[in-house]
Amino acid sequence: MKNILIGIGMLVLAFYMLWEQGKQQQEFLEQDRLNETDQTEPINDLNRTVRSIEPISSDRNDVEDINRSQPTTRPTLVDSIQEEELFEGLSNNFSSLVFTNQDGGIREVSLKQFSRLSRDYNMSHLGESLLSLSFEDESGKRLIGDLSVPRQYKRIESGNRSIVYQWELPNKIRIERIYTREDDSTYVFSHKTILTNLSSNPLPLGRIKLNLGSAFRMPRLYNPFDNAATYLNVGYYNEGLPLAEGCSCAECSGRIDGEQEEFFQLNEMGANGEMETKKLSLAKWACVNNQFFVNIVRPLDEFANSWIDGRSIQMLETDQDAIEGVSGTISFPIAYLSPQSSKEFSFEIYAGPKDYAGLALLGHEQKKVMQFGVFWWVSEPFSWLLNKLHGLLGNYGLAIILLTILVKLVLWPLTAKATQSQKKMQSLQGPMSKLREKHKGNSQKLNQEMMKFYKEHKVNPFAGCWPILIQIPIFLGMFWMLRSAAELYGQSFLWATDLSEQDHVSQVQGFSLNVLPILMVITQWFQMKLNPMQMGPELSDAQRINAKMMRFMPFMFLIFLYFFSSALVLYWTVQNLMTILQTLITKKAPDPKDSFKKERETEHETEEVPKVLNEVSDKEKSYRNLLGLKSKGLIDLKVLEKNYKERSENYSDFRLSEMNSGKRRQALDKKQRLEQAHQFLLDISKK
What's the rounded Cα separation, in Å, for the pair 43 and 127? Predict the structure, then answer.
């Protein structure tokens, strides 16, 4: 009755989560429908007002018709002082960039369906644009005066591979913003900012701050176990030594000690929506990312004393809840700009999918933005192998299946040995239960007898744990790899239209119907049926509890994996099928019960030998015990000589010389008795 109540409770929990998932799914579908027709833009400062704007056309031909030499326009934010002009350029097969004249930055990066990216995606940078420029003092406050007001840049060059924006304050400062891109640069482009002092006096500029852009939560199906906020991060890679500050404590000074890469999630931004400023001695790169896409700003020069800031933002939509997001900045000290002199800052920018293979090729540890965690040593080779298999098969679903089969084949010998050990352990449950009963009140003696029993029957009681222990890092490594693999975004397989999402074949009365998790549970249930747990009276209480938990394990996996990506569920389902195949093959091997039965029959026959052949005198028993031999049976001469030699060392001349007279006399008596026992048993064995 108790088991039935537990099962009913778990099913009720599963249906409740499915019901919640259905409601969330309907909201996401309605939100996606509205996204196709309307979009609103917030400002980076949440205290400001936002209003609706016209989105950039998603049709590349429409944009081309506007003419690259003629900037597009759209209504601006209410607090801007000039109308924003957008210009699309530096396009290649992978993406195109949309520039803004308001701050000479990038308003949008339009990613194209090409190579391993199976779906278009617009990386919009709302409020302050990507690479927007500002100045601040050493306290982090924006400089006041002419450099603090919004600036309208002028586009002075619009080549195929180069775009230049310029802003000039007469007789004071000129700012040039240069963007270049090569044809074969995938999602990478270069940026250079040149500051020129036009006056005859030094120009104090404090620190120069670049915006890292924005990243917003991607619309995903409801998952109670995977918070979308964990994918929104502001991160960096620090390469230098700890900063020398007045306070020696890294935490209270705000500097970074010993942390090379670190990522701050949306829910770690603090009560005011801003993360604590992180001070790096030498910033290698900084980034802003969501689940599948990332902006990485990498300085080409070594900028010491770099500051990283991040904050939470929101994108408001008509009649919809706000979409969460993050933005970030990186700043470098510039201090003073000498009269009639220039200073140049160069950067390499990656704005594209979180593709491990592509990021690894860029070098400079930019692959760290994948955030594989402690199991990176599993996730990285799996990601590399997955893309290699995709190149061979042309489909990521087939690549996941083949990857799972290869992993299972590598672990096959270990799993087979563990299965055989489990079967032999089950065959020995009867004798083991008798040992437990015999030594019920003496746990120490029971452990000694159990280990002796295992040794005699050549059984390793821990052999069955190894496959489980090895599967844990493999499963978690696969999970971390698949959860942020942008290659899977939009990839279809069988009925699943997106391997990075639930397979979601239909909607039934508000419930999202996912078929793969159900198939996964069926395969796991069948796998357990092939290895039934023995529930005889010889099992201990702990073993009974473990057996009952294992019966409900498939349903627990149904609850957890029902909401995760179809790629992960596909991996687990194929693994179950491979385990079933291995179990069926292993079952054809000789049953350990038969060999154990033969051993028992042999022992029984030995016991029926006339007692006269096995009888020994009390004297012989005493001598056998003295030399550590069995009380019955033939004497093994090798064991006899070995034990005699080991025991004789206790009575060597050196040890006897260190004893007092009383102990030496006792030791000599024991030595004489040991020699008599050795000679006696030696004579018997020769008869």
Answer: 4
Instruction: Name 501's Cβ contacts closer than 8 Å, sequence gap at least 6.
Output: 220, 221, 565, 566
Do β-strands 304-317 and 72-74 pair in parallel, antiparallel, or remain unpaired?
A: unpaired
CA distances from 228 to 220, 423, 491, 561, 587 (A): 8, 44, 20, 16, 44
Q: Pairing between strand 173-180 and 95-100? A: unpaired
Burial of 58 (0-12, 13-18, 19+ CB in 10 A): exposed
SS3 content of the chain, % helix, strand, coil (to 5): 45, 25, 30
Domains and CATH numbers, the chain: 2-6+391-596 (no CATH), 38-47+60-215+227-371 (2.70.98.90), 618-685 (1.10.287)
Listed in sequence order, the residues at least 6 apart from 555 whose beta carbon sits closer than 8 Å to its beta carbon are 7, 10, 11, 14, 521
Show the tokens assigned to 50.
């936002």
Token code pair at residue 653:
């001349």
CA quadruple 469, 563, 232, 181: dihedral sign: positive
Bridge partner residues of 189 (DSSP): 349
Model pLDDT for residues 517-536, shown as the tens digit of each residue: 888 888 888 877 776 655 55
Sequence-distant contacts of 318-323: CB under 8 A, at least 24 apart: 318/34, 318/38, 318/40, 318/52, 319/34, 320/31, 320/34, 322/42, 323/216, 323/217
Whether the full predicted model's pTM is greater than 0.85, yes or no, is no
DSSP assignment letter at 552: H
* CA-based nearest residue to 489, from 273, 275, 219, 675: 219
* Long-range pairs for 87-95: beta carbons < 8 A, 24 or more residues apart: 87/155, 87/158, 87/163, 88/56, 88/63, 89/158, 89/163, 90/161, 90/163, 90/179, 90/180, 90/181, 90/189, 92/181, 92/183, 92/185, 92/186, 94/186, 94/187, 94/352, 95/187, 95/351, 95/352
Beta pairing, strands 106-111 & 121-124: antiparallel
Tokens read off for 369: 């933005």
322-338 pLDDT per residue, tens: 788 999 999 999 878 88
Give the integer Cα–Cα distance in Å for 444 and 459. 20
**Chain centroid offset of residue 374 CA:** 7
Nearest CA to 519 out of 500, 533, 503 is that of 503
In the structure encoding, which two tokens stand for residue 146, read together?
Answer: 């002419």
pLDDT digit string (tens) for 113-123?
Answer: 888 888 899 99
Element (H or E) spanning 669, and its range? helix 661-685
For 542-572, b where at least 16 C-beta lie within 10 A, e where not — what string?
eeeeeeeeeeeebbebbbebbbbbbbbbbbb
CA distance 18 to 16: 5
